[in-house]
Design brief:
By secondary structure, this protein is mostly beta strands. It has no helices and 38 strands. A hairpin with a 4-residue loop joins strand 25 (327-333) and strand 26 (338-342).
């Protein structure tokens, strides 16, 4: 199924959402006529079976027209874009990147397929959005027109020190298809370090004033802004290189996408206003809530009621198609005592807490962390799992004295332990009867927010090293590994040999 979302031009050509039935896919989908600068066509498509080919066509009215095609798959498999003229002569090919072609007037065909013959969703953007110089100031901005859908423009930051400006306005009816926010991002097939500065026109001042700034929130060192947009707002975007020394950027893309966000129930800025988390169904111990933080709403409160003791996994992740943002997650008792907190985990800006809890009511807070410019959409996930708690048994410094532990199906194991005298090492031995993915994670003792520095090492039966981790969650450690049937050892050591501290080792099957 393909969805043709919009075509945008300075002259404002618009094609509203058209969903074609599968039977109609034998005919190529017409994307539109590229006759004006900054015309953009956007398609959300799906390769529904291995080896499927999706076909599109578009027209170009002027000779030497520069057209860009960007196709991105929504999973790990690569997509391929191939362009032909109306006589089936090959024009160009790209895999998971931007294809730039210079075309004469005529009709062209676009084929989208999967490099690995995968079944997957994808998005295809075709644009004639090449910048025109001079556009080095607000008054010289390239005019993107009235915003009625996805816009893709391309430019270069050459010579060194160049700045590019683009301006657009929100129509009186607001963003299309119920959108309430704009995602503005730079990207490119090669490396680049940009800065984005957003200006909004002030009717009071009668001039554009800066309202948002971003340097490195996008992929690699590219930039990204997410902000609410109101009808009749007028904006200007400034793009510059920010790396030192300035080398210039041969080509970058500026992508502006309308988003419909799932928001939380407001107000929920205090524990007294906390939103009660409801389980996904009576038969499952999982909870989900979507929310959005901004400069006027920096903390969201949720209340979680547990009927039975459980190991709780609490984490934040992205809402669909919104990208990654930086959150801070905290867990409190009903009386306000903080039990756990986490900022960044597993090389991600998202947050995760894993902690055993007694049957009681708790508060969870989600805060914006870092230098987010305006809006932080997130999804809060909570899942409960049975847990058995055991105490460490000394001595357990060597493989011969390692403490034997047993892992029960569907139940996590929490070992309450301590690093004692200088040079202390804690070793644990366990066996698996079948191939299993197991996570090992150190953290503070239940009820403590203490932060200590550990290392984790996983060994096989011959004491050959399988995996090692130092810092995965602050200074705590984490290993996730798929293991074959056999006997294994997990060893906990302090990073600094003279440290003495208590800790908990969580072992859970995934």
């Amino acid at each position: 199924m393909k969805k043709l979302c919009s075509v945008i031009a300075v002259s404002i050509v618009l094609l509203w959402g058209v969903v074609l039935p599968l039977a109609a896919q034998s005919e190529p989908v017409f994307l539109g006529v590229f006759s004006e600068p900054f015309t953009t066509a956007f398609i959300a498509g799906e390769l529904e079976y291995p080896g499927e080919l999706d076909w599109y066509t578009f027209d170009v009215t002027g000779d030497d027209s520069r057209v860009y095609l960007l196709c991105r798959g929504k999973d790990v498999y690569g997509t391929r874009t191939v362009v032909f003229d109306d006589e089936s002569v090959h024009v160009g090919t790209s895999e998971e990147g931007t294809l730039e072609v210079i075309l004469a007037a005529g009709t062209y065909r676009v084929r989208v397929d999967s490099v690995g013959s995968a079944v997957q969703d994808y998005s295809l953007i075709v644009s004639s959005g090449a910048e025109t110089e001079p556009n080095d100031g607000i008054l010289e901005s390239n005019d993107l027109g009235s915003f009625t859908g996805v816009v893709l423009a391309f430019g270069s930051l050459l010579p060194r020190g160049d700045a590019d400006f683009f301006r657009f306005e929100i129509p009186e009816g607001g963003l299309p298809e119920g959108g309430e926010a704009l995602l503005i991002e730079t990207n490119g097939s090669s490396s680049g370090d940009t800065v984005l500065i957003l200006y909004r026109y002030s009717d009071v001042e009668q001039r554009y004033l800066p309202v948002a700034f971003d340097d490195d929130s996008g992929a690699d060192y590219w930039s990204r802004l997410l902000l609410p947009a109101q009808p009749l707002d007028r904006y200007a975007i400034r793009v510059e290189e920010t790396a030192y020394p300035l080398d210039g950027i041969e080509q970058y893309g500026l992508l502006i996408t309308p988003l419909a966000l799932s928001t939380d129930r407001e107000p929920n800025d205090t524990s007294a206003q906390a939103v009660a988390l409801m389980p996904a169904s009576p038969a499952t111990a999982t909870w989900t809530a979507d929310g959005v933080l901004d400069v006027d709403d920096t903390t969201d409160f949720y209340e979680l009621a547990l009927d039975t003791p459980a190991l709780m996994r609490i984490w934040t992740e992205s809402q669909p198609d919104t990208g990654n943002f930086d959150t801070l997650l905290a867990l409190y008792t009903s009386s306000g005592n903080r039990l756990a907190a986490n900022d960044d985990t597993d090389n991600s800006l998202w947050s995760r807490i894993i902690v055993p809890l007694d049957a009681a009511s708790y508060y969870i807070t989600v805060e914006a962390s870092g230098r987010e410019a305006s809006m932080v959409p997130y999804r809060l996930r909570v899942a409960a799992q049975g847990v058995e708690t055991v105490a460490e048994s000394e001595p357990n410094e060597t493989p011969d004295t390692a403490q034997t532990i047993e892992l029960a199906d569907g139940e996590a194991l929490l070992i309450e332990a301590a690093i004692g005298l200088e040079g202390d090492i804690d070793s644990f031995r366990f066996a698996l009867d079948e191939e299993t993915t197991v996570v090992f994670e150190t953290g503070p003792m239940p009820g403590s927010a203490m932060d200590s520095d550990t290392t984790l090492t996983l060994y096989d039966e011959t004491f050959a090293e399988i995996a090692y981790n130092d810092d995965a969650d602050g200074s705590w450690s984490r290993i996730e590994q798929t293991l074959s049937p056999g006997v294994y050892y997990i060893m906990v050591q302090p990073y600094f040999s003279d440290e003495v501290f208590e800790y908990a080792l969580l072992i859970a099957e995934l």
